[in-house]
Design brief:
The chain is α+β, with helices and mostly antiparallel strands and 362 residues long. Helix content is 57%, strand content 8%. It has 11 helices and 6 strands. The longest helix is centred in the middle third of the chain and has 48 residues. The protein is globular and about 75 Å long.
Length: 362
């Protein structure tokens, strides 16, 4: 395992996610999606994504920037997952059941869109029910069984609800990890982490070097979720409402604050290595042992291809058209087709901030 000290300029400037048979990497405005095709080739889709934080100063204020980034990441993640499915030739709009086919034949696409919308709403409702209403209801039941003792100690009630919430999350992740397709996605998740760690350490971007790096990373979304779960225990301890629905609704209103604080901590933890960050980051890193798997060289190759097309050119990044990756690292594309909007945008390496030693020297 590599223990090389990360370059401060490289830490935090690139992130990514695992998708279907591939990896997406993002640095600054630059996004690169690399997917392993059924024929064994690697297909790249390079594009740009400009955050509201770069357009509006208000969106870059502490706490607010965390909420903005959270929503943007959700949108980008869904777009990249859909795009990876399209690149694989998977038709996400194709009806899978006889009932869906019957609905499409009788009522057309409009009804199917309504059904999809209803499905999304039901999915959100299930998430709120599992992670907010259910733990709150169990906490109230525990309070009733204790004769009101737990309710008199808000921190204890919040702790019980938080432990239940964490238990539901861990169980969900552990069960999904048993699915073969999810296992493979977790391998690409590990490839993403190893590739980013290789880049941050300033090592040459090869599968051999990436293989030496850790598959656990403090800025991972898994760590972010765990930090939010821990913060929710602290923040929700001030809510003294007994009614389950009112208590759940109040918790929902505190979510932006929890997301914002969680984002600030992850930013801080990514650039600092001290006792506090180690303690608060530990549960998320433990959880990554489930949400990541050791990748093979073929998966690392895909992650590194996306990384090279996202990072600044000063760090070895490549600016090129989308297409099938050739042996020399360039892409094969149709020269008659014009470049897509933002396809050839390059990332820029941020200036190196002076260290405390440099400031004292001055």
């Amino acid at each position: 395992m590599s223990n090389k000290t990360p370059d401060p300029r490289r830490c935090g400037i690139v992130g990514g996610q695992a998708v279907l048979e591939g990896v997406m990497m993002k640095s600054g405005k630059r996004c690169s999606l690399a997917v392993r095709m059924p024929d064994g080739s690697i297909k790249l889709d390079n594009s740009s994504f400009v955050s509201l934080r770069q357009k509006n100063k208000l969106c870059n204020l502490p706490i607010i920037r965390g909420c903005v980034s959270f929503v943007e990441q959700l949108i980008l993640s869904m777009n990249m997952l859909t795009k990876s499915a399209d690149m694989q030739g998977i038709d996400t709009d194709e009806p899978e059941t006889k009932f869906e086919k019957w609905l499409l034949e009788k009522f057309g696409d409009k009804l199917m869109n309504v059904v999809a919308g209803i499905g999304m709403v039901l999915g959100l409702a299930m998430g709120v029910g599992l992670f907010l209403v259910l733990p709150t209801a169990v906490g109230s039941l525990a309070d009733w069984l204790s004769g009101g003792v737990i309710g008199d100690i808000p921190v204890l009630r919040s702790l019980i609800e938080g432990i239940i919430r964490i238990g539901i999350f861990v169980a969900y992740v552990a069960l999904t990890a048993l699915m073969p397709d999810i296992k493979r996605t977790y391998e690409y998740h590990g490839a993403e982490h190893k590739s980013v760690a290789c880049f941050e350490a300033g090592m040459e971007l090869t599968p051999e070097n990436a293989r030496k790096c850790s598959r656990l990373h403090p800025r991972c979304g898994t760590s972010f979720i765990f930090v939010m779960l821990i913060l929710s225990i602290i923040i929700n301890s001030v809510i003294t409402l007994d009614d389950v629905l009112l208590r759940s609704a109040t918790k929902l209103l505190t979510l932006p604050l929890i997301v914002g604080l969680g984002f600030e901590f992850i930013r801080y933890a990514g650039g600092h290595d001290n006792v506090l960050t180690k303690i608060l980051s530990a549960p998320g890193l433990w959880m990554q042992r489930i949400t990541t798997r050791e990748p093979d060289d073929a998966e690392l190759e895909v992650a590194l291809a996306a990384l090279r097309n996202a990072i600044p050119t000063e760090c070895g990044g490549i600016v090129q058209r989308s297409g099938v990756l050739k042996a020399d690292g360039t892409t094969e594309f149709n020269p008659d087709e014009p470049a897509k909007d933002g396809e050839l945008v390059s990332s820029e390496l941020p200036p190196l901030k002076p260290s405390k030693k440099d400031k004292k020297a001055k």
